[in-house]
């Protein structure tokens, strides 16, 4: 006797999956659930020590002078925040385009114009560690990924303190003494400031100092400061000098 199926009635259908296919599906889901750090296979000795738990702090690596060759080392030891610097400019009349994160250049060849995009990223944990990297690619997103990767490899330790004579606190809200950095024609001098002053620097250098954990600082700059790449490198070079403390 045939059973009549009413409209709206649900029909349950079970499909038997072979054991081999079920195993493949479980393995695929397990791989997708694994984080990139869990799936990371270190290639350097420092990476192996970090993966095994022998090295638990990034300062052990930075103070020893060893070079970091894998960005996963930094991701395993500290929690980073990232931001992009405005190194490019969109097209506009008389050069009045809006600043943007991608710098576009082109090269003349026999086949035509070859475009290249550059971007600059800054990473930091707001607790005395910061890094800046420049990435180049034929597309925008790969250049950003390269910039973030190089920024992690170039991370440095910044000694913070309170070096201003008007401030008698012991909190690490500023820098311990005046430092100066240079890149190209840009020279930036960072000077300690009392609490509540804020960051008296350019907007792009503010991003670097914020991610380094510095809240108050005075600055003096000269040269072609609108060249963001040189200004950012000069700021990082100044921060490197705080390691002499």
Word description of this protein:
The chain is an alpha+beta fold. It has three domains: 45-77, no CATH class; 81-156, Double Stranded RNA Binding Domain (2-Layer Sandwich); 159-244, Ribosomal Protein S5, domain 2 (2-Layer Sandwich), CATH 3.30.230. 30% of the residues lie in helices and 24% in strands. It contains seven helices and ten strands. It has helices spanning 19-33, 45-52, 59-64, 71-77, 140-153, 203-212, 228-240, and strands at residues 81-85, 88-89, 99-100, 103-109, 112-124, 129-137, 156-157, 179-183, 186-192, 217-222. Strands 1, 4, 5, 6 and 7 form a five-stranded antiparallel β-sheet that branches. It has a three-stranded antiparallel β-sheet with strand order 8-9-10. Strand 4 (103-109) and strand 5 (112-124) form a beta hairpin. Helix 2 (45-52) packs parallel to helix 4 (71-77). It starts with 18 loop residues before the first helix and ends in a 5-residue tail after the last helix.
Give a brief rundown of this model.
The chain has 245 residues and is an alpha+beta fold. Helix content is 30%, strand content 24%.
Features:
single chain, alpha+beta, Double Stranded RNA Binding Domain, Ribosomal Protein S5, domain 2, 3 domains, 5-stranded antiparallel sheet, 3-stranded antiparallel sheet, 10 strands, 30% helix
């Amino acid at each position: 006797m045939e059973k009549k199926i009413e409209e709206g009635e649900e029909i349950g259908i079970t499909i038997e999956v072979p054991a081999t296919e079920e195993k493949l599906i479980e393995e695929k889901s397990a791989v997708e659930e694994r984080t990139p750090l869990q799936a990371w296979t270190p290639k350097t000795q420092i990476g192996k020590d970090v993966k095994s738990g022998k090295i638990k702090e990034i300062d052990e690596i930075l103070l020893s002078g060893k070079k970091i060759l894998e960005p996963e080392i930094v991701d395993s030891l500290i929690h980073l925040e990232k931001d992009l610097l405005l190194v490019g400019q969109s097209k506009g009349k008389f050069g009045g385009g809006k600043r943007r994160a991608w710098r576009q250049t082109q090269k003349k060849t026999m086949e035509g114009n070859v475009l290249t995009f550059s971007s600059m990223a800054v990473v930091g944990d707001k607790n005395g560690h910061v890094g800046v990297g420049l990435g180049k690619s034929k597309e925008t997103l790969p250049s950003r990924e390269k910039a973030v990767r190089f920024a992690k490899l170039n991370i440095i330790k910044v000694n913070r303190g309170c070096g201003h004579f008007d401030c008698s606190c012991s909190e690490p809200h500023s820098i311990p003494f005046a430092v100066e950095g240079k890149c190209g024609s840009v020279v930036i001098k960072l000077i300690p400031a009392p609490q509540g002053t804020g960051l008296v620097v350019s907007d792009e250098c503010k991003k670097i100092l914020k991610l380094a954990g510095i809240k108050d600082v005075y600055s003096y700059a000269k040269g072609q400061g609108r060249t963001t790449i040189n200004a950012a490198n000069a700021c990082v070079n100044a921060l490197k000098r705080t390691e002499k403390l």
